C-alpha cells in the first residue's frame, strides 16, 4: 500500500519557475502541457523523498528495537519457549 506524500486534490496556486529555454521551446512545439508536466515531475520527486524519509525513520526505529532486545531481552522471553 502506498501512502500519498501530498494532497493531490488541493487547489492549484500560480508560481514562477526558471526552466531551460530550449527545453521549454521543445516542449511547447510538442504540445506538452508545461504545468502538468512540472507538477507530475515534482509529485514523483516529492513521493520519492517522502518514501526515503519514512524508510530512514523505520530503519532507526528497528535499530532501536533490535538494540533494546539485544540489551534487555524480548518482552516475551519471560514466558519461555512456545
Q: What would you note in describing this structure?
A:
The protein has 82 residues and is mainly alpha-helical. It is built from two helices and no strands. It is rod-shaped.
The proportion of residues in beta strands is: under 5%
Which class best fits the helix and strand makeup? mainly alpha
Q: Helical amount among residues, as a percent range?
A: 55-70%
SSE pattern: HH
**Strand count, sense and closure of the main sheet?**
none
Unreliable residue runs? none
Q: Average pLDDT value?
A: 92
Shape: rod-shaped
Terminus-to-terminus distance: 32 Å
Task: Specify Rg, calculated over alpha carbons.
Answer: 23 Å
Number of helical segments with 4 or more residues: 2
How many β-strand stretches? 0
Question: Which structural traits does this protein have?
Answer:
rod-shaped; mainly alpha
Short characterization:
By secondary structure, this protein is mostly helical. The chain has helices at residues 21-29, 34-72.
How would you summarize the topology of this molecule?
Elements: H1 21-29, H2 34-72
Amino acid at each position: 500500500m502506498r501512502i500519498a506524500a501530498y494532497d493531490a486534490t488541493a487547489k492549484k496556486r500560480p508560481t514562477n519557475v526558471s526552466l531551460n529555454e530550449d527545453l521549454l521551446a521543445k516542449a511547447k512545439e510538442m504540445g506538452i502541457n508545461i504545468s502538468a508536466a512540472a507538477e507530475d515531475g515534482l509529485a514523483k520527486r516529492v513521493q520519492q523523498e517522502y518514501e526515503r524519509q519514512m524508510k530512514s525513520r523505520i530503519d532507526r526505529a528497528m535499530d532501536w528495537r533490535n538494540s533494546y532486545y539485544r540489551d534487555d531481552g524480548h518482552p516475551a522471553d519471560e514466558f519461555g519457549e512456545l
